[in-house]
Design brief:
The complex is a heterodimer. Chain A is an alpha/beta fold. Chain A has helices spanning about 5-20, 35-45, 50-65, 105-115, 120-125, 145-150, 155-160, 165-170, 180-190, 430-435, 440-460, 465-475, and strands spanning about 130-135, 135-140, 150-155, 190-200, 210-215, 225-230, 235-240, 250, 255-260, 265-275, 285-295, 300-305, 310-315, 320, 325-335, 340-345, 345-350, 355-365, 370-380, 385-395, 400-410, 415-425. Chain A has a domain at about 85-90 and about 105-315. Chain A is built from 12 helices and 22 strands. Classes of the chains: A alpha/beta, B alpha/beta.
Chain lengths: ~475, ~400
């Protein structure tokens, strides 16, 4: 593909559009419902993508067609009809904004409702936000400041245009399209996401943050995130999610790839609060995400997640500890209420010598929900002195809900040390009594105890997120005590 | 195209005879339906993720050798017990039993089989092909003065057995199941154990698995435990290249206590898999699981424990632990302790550890003049001993210690 020129590309695109008889409608920017090769070509063309990426997409689509949906997770749901989804939708106004003031006021209003308030964040917190409204990135701030340091932080489609060499080099190296059903689907139809590259030895001076939202009805979101920390670099990345109320189930199948090269460190924090469905379990988002990072020598990847939303969650942020002395961490709080179902956990794959991993998972089930931890700790033959510690605690709030633990522990090296422990219990009556006796209302006491229970995880979150996460926990569990 | 021959399961079951036992039709139909179109499971199947069946599929089973009583006697672990011999299709039942204890062969006195569940193709094959088994009944309020000992000697061929135990209210007994095999024979045995345990009964089942390299040993235990009953299964795996144990206990009455314990010392290419299912269906019960093992050479140990706490099983206390010491670069340990909990007022925990001996403890012992080997042996013995405390019969314990000493040069 090396001698593929821009002109040829332009010609190809022209031909493609003609070939499929598609007339671009600037206002209604949603591709027809359904999924086939033509739709993928269309998405690729719309995004003005190079041929190699289209080839990748088509390859992934072929793989996806051969695959069947996984059924091993401890969740039950009406399987989505993949032909009833529109695979691309962009906000109507797709032109790039020169400055924040140019942004559509209505859009700003939605963001305010969500409590994101970009202006405030820009002014007060110094967080650079790459805001994804449905599938297209609308505004990016602090870009100038970051680019001074050589940090690239942009939407995925921008990266494809501007840094194709980096995208091509790293995309699919951690989560290949053959990985699983949803990763293959994402690789075929992903629309946008974030791309982040921290050059050698650079410590990113601010927390990078992306807010994802699902907006238009009937559109699945298929983000692709790629974070590359070059040798000795450091970055802390935040991802937060909110979604408005919808009646039909919405599908969300993202892929996140982290690459921590020698001596690099990536901290990836997520607060996920998508629409969990109503009290009867109607509606809600399906969250089937593949997140994985790879650590080279001496590198570290730390996943922190607070999961309160989504009707069905299927998510296992993982670390491949490839390099010697590399470190993987996973801190998670998963809250399920009403009829939510979560099957979440992590995989720690120890390949290198002296690798270390820590897993702290706190599950809270309320209402009629089902909350499962599923994890894998795998010590390969060459992982001398590998060390793992896992702790999975579950808290049950009512007698209708369920808490489950499915850890897989596989060890092939005699010098490895693996510890796993799990407990399941409810909020101690003595603890509640103690608080209430001191004049704290039951609701507040529960919130206090739950926050204490999650402290180990919440402490890992960056400041702004920690505050938000605590509020989220309280809201998610409101009136849920049985 | 030899499509019919390529199915390993068809090949394996081609020469099995139809079971003459009175097994309920519904169960037989379920087994037939389960097996139809199936082949030997691969490591892609969750239940056989860590067990490779290639060797079993290609095994050339030797012809069954019939042993006489004198020969069988040599395989006893306990000298003073009600001893039953199981050798191929021959079952020798002891005479002069105390009142309250009845032991018959199922082929002669068919008991009632429950719709016992099976988890894999071998369990289903057992339903269709079991040739014989035991019917053991202990009347209520009976306390046995000495243990029942079932000595199963595998001497070639493929065999399926179904044993059915019925323990009356407040009965008390210790049962030993000793599994041995003849050297230089290649054999397969799948044994289904069904235990019906009435209220307040106190039953201890101890298994001593000590077969030779050519034997494939499958065990399937299904227990129903009633109120206030105490039930134990202690599985001690010594030798045997291929052992799979699948124990499931359903607790049907309150204030019951269940212990599932296991110990395994593995060397060479031994493969030992322990599957347990602890099903708490009612409130106020307790269960304790302790599985411990040492893996050396190229051996593999698998533990998969599942604890269910049903919606109504409030105030359940369930504890599960699996600890492994991995002593060789080529050995591997796979552990999967699971909890599935649907009641809120419970205390459930599980723990799993895999590692090697503590350096500081080794140093402590060596500083006191112990050689590296004996320091290691001492620590390993101590590590395994807490499972062996459940073996109350001195003779059995002495046998286990002796066998470990022989195989690993540990001196007790």
């Amino acid at each position: 593909m090396s001698n593929y020129t821009e002109n040829e590309l332009a010609q190809d695109l022209e031909n493609q559009e003609y070939k499929f008889g598609f007339v671009t409608d600037i206002e209604a920017d949603t591709v027809p419902i359904g999924l086939n090769e033509d739709i993928i070509r269309l998405i690729s063309a719309k995004k003005n993508e190079p041929q190699w990426l289209l080839d990748e997409r088509l390859k992934a689509f072929a793989i996806w067609q051969e695959m069947t949906e996984p059924e091993w997770a401890h969740v039950h749901y009406q399987k989505p009809d993949f032909q009833a989804i529109a695979y691309y939708s962009a906000p109507k106004q797709t032109k790039k904004y020169e400055s924040w003031d140019d942004v559509d006021p209505e859009l700003k209003e939605t963001m305010k409702k969500l409590g994101i308030s970009m202006e405030e964040q820009q002014r007060l917190t110094g967080v650079a936000v790459d805001f994804v409204m449905d599938s297209v990135s609308v505004a990016t701030s602090f870009k100038a400041k970051l680019s001074e340091l050589g940090i690239i932080f942009c939407s995925f489609s921008e990266a494809v245009q501007e840094h194709p060499e980096l995208v091509q080099k790293y995309m699919g190296t951690v989560v290949p399209s053959t990985d699983n059903f949803y990763a293959a689907l994402n690789s075929a139809v992903f629309t946008d996401g974030s791309f982040c590259y921290i050059p050698k030895g650079v410590r990113c001076p601010m927390e990078l943050s992306t807010y994802f939202r699902i907006n238009a009805g009937g559109t699945g979101q298929f983000e692709r995130t790629l974070v590359v920390a070059d040798e000795g670099a450091y970055v802390s990345y935040l991802e937060g999610c909110t979604a408005p109320q919808r009646d039909e189930n919405q599908l969300h199948a993202a892929v996140v790839e982290l690459i921590a090269l020698k001596d690099a460190e990536i901290k990836y924090s997520t607060v996920q609060n998508w629409y969990p469905g109503d009290k009867e379990g109607k509606g809600g988002v399906f969250n089937f995400v593949t997140k994985r990072g790879i650590c080279e020598t001496n590198a570290k990847i730390s996943w922190t997640q607070v999961e309160t939303g989504s009707a069905v969650t299927w998510k296992y942020p993982s670390c491949i500890l490839k390099g010697d002395h590399s470190v993987g961490e996973f801190y998670s709080v998963a809250v399920t209420n009403n009829f939510q179902q979560a099957d979440t956990g992590t995989k720690m794959i120890h390949l290198g010598k002296n690798t270390k991993s820590t897993i702290i998972s706190k599950g809270i089930s309320a209402g009629n929900s089902q909350n499962a931890y599923r994890g894998l700790v795998q010590i390969h033959k060459g992982a001398q002195n590998a060390r793992n510690f896992s702790q999975c605690d579950s808290l049950l709030m009512t007698d209708h809900c369920g808490a489950h633990t499915f850890p897989y522990i596989e060890c092939k090296n005699p010098t490895a040390k693996i510890e796993h422990e799990a407990t399941t219990s409810k909020i101690g009556e003595d603890q509640l009594f103690y608080c209430m006796q001191r004049g704290i209302s039951e609701e507040k006491a529960i919130s206090l105890i739950v926050n204490g229970y999650c402290k180990e995880v919440l402490n890992q979150l960056p400041m702004e997120f920690a505050v938000e996460a605590q509020k989220l926990l309280a809201i998610s569990l409101e009136g849920s005590v049985g | 195209m030899e499509t019919t021959v390529s199915n390993k399961l068809d090949q394996f079951s081609a020469d099995l005879s139809v079971s003459p036992l009175a097994i309920p039709q519904a169960l037989q139909h379920a087994a037939q339906a389960y097996l139809s179109g199936k082949d030997f499971p691969t490591t892609k199947s969750e239940r056989f993720k860590y067990t490779r069946l290639g060797k079993l599929a290609s095994a050339a089973f030797t012809n069954a050798i019939q042993l006489d009583t004198a020969q069988l006697n040599a395989y006893c672990v306990l000298n003073d017990a009600y001893t039953i011999f199981v050798n191929n299709d021959q079952i020798i039942v002891p005479q002069n039993l105390p009142s309250g204890l009845e032991i018959t062969q199922i082929a002669q006195h068919p008991g009632t089989f429950h719709d016992a569940s099976f988890n894999d193709i071998f369990g289903a094959l057992n339903v269709l092909h079991a040739q014989n088994g035991l019917n053991i009944t202990l009347a209520k309020h009976c306390t046995l003065d000495k243990p029942i000992q079932i000595v199963q000697v595998n001497s070639g061929g493929k065999h399926f057995y179904r044993h059915h135990f019925t323990f009356g209210e407040n009965a008390e007994a210790a049962i030993y199941v000793v599994s041995k095999s003849l050297a230089d024979t290649i054999s397969f045995a799948h044994t289904h154990f069904q235990y019906d345990i009435a209220q307040s009964a106190r039953i201890r089942v101890s298994k001593i698995q000590d077969c030779s390299a050519g034997h494939f040993d499958f065990n399937e235990d299904r227990a129903q435990q009633n109120a206030q009953a105490h039930f134990e299964i202690n599985t001690i795996t010594l030798d045997g290249s291929f052992v799979r144990n699948d124990a499931a206990v359903a607790v049907e009455g309150q204030h019951a206590q269940t212990y599932l314990n296991g110990a395994y010392w593995l060397k060479d290419e031994q493969h030992v898999a322990n599957y347990t299912t602890m099903d708490h269906r009612v409130a106020n019960c307790e269960s304790f699981e302790t599985y411990k093992g040492v893996a050396t050479d190229r051996s593999t140990a698998v533990f998969n424990g599942k604890v269910f706490v049903r919606k109504d099983a409030q105030k359940t206390n369930a504890y599960q632990s699996n600890a492994n010491v991995l002593l060789s670069e080529n050995a591997s340990v796979n552990s999967k302790p699971e909890l599935e909990i649907y009641a809120d007022d419970v205390k459930c925990s599980h723990g799993s550890t895999t590692g090697q001996l503590d350096e500081t403890a080794l140093f402590y012992l060596r500083a006191r003049g112990l050689s590296a080997a004996s320091a290691k042996n001492l620590l390993l013995q101590a590590f395994m001993e807490d499972v062996l405390t459940y073996i109350k019969e001195e003779e059995a314990l002495a046998y286990i210690h002796q066998r470990i000493a022989d195989r690993f040069n540990w001196n007790y």
